[in-house]
From TrEMBL:
Belongs to the AB hydrolase superfamily. LDAH family. This is Lipid droplet-associated hydrolase. One of its GO terms (cellular component) is lipid droplet. It holds the Pfam family LIDHydrolase. SUPFAM superfamilies: alpha/beta-Hydrolases. Gene3D superfamilies: alpha/beta hydrolase. Transmembrane segments: none annotated. It comes from the Eukaryota. It comes from Juglans regia (English walnut). The keyword Hydrolase applies. It is found in: Lipid droplet. GO terms for biological process: lipid storage.
Length: 326
């Protein structure tokens, strides 16, 4: 789930990889070249398209490689609006040197994402990798479990895998989404903001909570988050998240696939708290776990955050898939 981001983070970040090593990373193309990631002349804009999956229109954001070595399917966090991840998708494509096609799929349901893999990607002869953010990490893991014969690797970013009973903020949100009255009221407030002239709403946004946001994040907010039905859908998804994630994670599956699963956690992130990081380390020893110190849960709201997280994902893919020949 996405929250309001903090002040714009510096590009220099402290990224801790567990269980074996830690290092500091700079979000620069020059450093990526030194690390052996071939991305020269790989910039390409992401394109939006609508795709009917099992009868439901689903929004996609994608970049298709000319000669892909693999296909990355990205599942966003709540609210499931792929436009928020435009900078991330483009950075990931660039850092992978144009060797991978990248597709971000909007939220319909877990089952529909499996249907999408079958419908759109079944005939591909290249590996399929899943990357999820927040609740999208849970969804990606679930899709991996349901379609493990098609998926070769799964990466969870700032994963929301279980309800955090220690979070007062989650407690408040849980009460709101379970209340029909409060959900309708919040949706009406959002719709009332949408009735303002777009220039006025954009001015309010960029001079308040969105002052440090990227152009893509501002545009996505202005075009999507001031619609009554969109906000109702966000709250409904949040309600299903809280109900489903009251269950214990599937540790058995994670242990079976530990070599093919990786997680990136953030600092002071109540959706993917460090106690979950510790619990995964305890339940699934040897799994790839990392901690990003500089960029928050809402990394996709800034260009720096999108670039740095994409860099980490690219490294994992390069090391675990491309270089290992999976």
């Amino acid at each position: 789930m996405l929250l309001r981001p903090t002040a714009r983070p510096l590009c220099r970040s402290s990224l801790y990889l567990q269980p074996r090593r830690s290092y500091r990373s700079r979000c620069t193309i020059k450093d990526m070249a030194r690390d052996g990631l071939d991305f020269s002349e790989a910039k390409r804009p992401a394109a939006f398209r609508l795709c009917k999956v099992s009868g439901y229109m689903t929004e996609l954001l994608e970049i298709r490689a000319d000669d892909p070595k693999l296909h990355v399917l990205f599942i966003p966090g709540n609210p499931g609006i792929v436009a928020f991840y435009k900078d991330f998708v483009e950075s990931l494509y660039e850092f992978l040197g144009g060797h991978a096609s990248v597709t971000a799929i909007g939220h319909v349901s877990h089952t529909k994402k499996v249907d999408f893999i079958i419908q759109e990607l079944e005939n591909l002869e290249v590996p399929i990798l899943l990357v999820g953010h927040s609740i999208g990490s849970y969804m990606a893991n679930d899709v991996f479990r349901r379609s493990s014969e098609k998926v070769t690797y799964c990466i969870g970013l700032y994963p929301f895998l279980a309800v955090n009973s220690q979070s007062w903020w989650q407690s408040i949100i849980g009460k709101i989404v379970e209340s029909q009255v409060l959900s309708v009221a919040l949706s009406c407030i959002a719709a009332s903001l949408g009735s303002l002239p777009s220039s006025a709403y954009r001015l309010i946004l960029t001079n308040s909570v969105g002052s440090s946001w990227s152009a893509a994040a501002v545009e996505a907010t202005c075009s999507h988050l001031v619609q009554y039905q969109v906000v109702r859908n966000i709250l409904f998804l949040a309600m299903t998240e809280f109900r489903k994630l009251a269950e214990t994670p599937d540790w058995k599956f994670m242990r079976e696939k530990r070599e093919k699963i990786a997680f990136l956690f953030g600092v002071d992130d109540h959706w993917g708290p460090l106690q979950m990081h510790k619990e995964i380390s305890k339940q699934v020893p040897g799994i790839s776990l990392s901690i990003e110190k500089a960029h928050p849960h809402t990394f996709c709201f800034t260009e720096d955050g999108s670039s740095c997280v994409a860099k980490h994902v690219a490294r994992l893919i390069q090391n675990q898939v491309l270089h290992s020949g999976q």
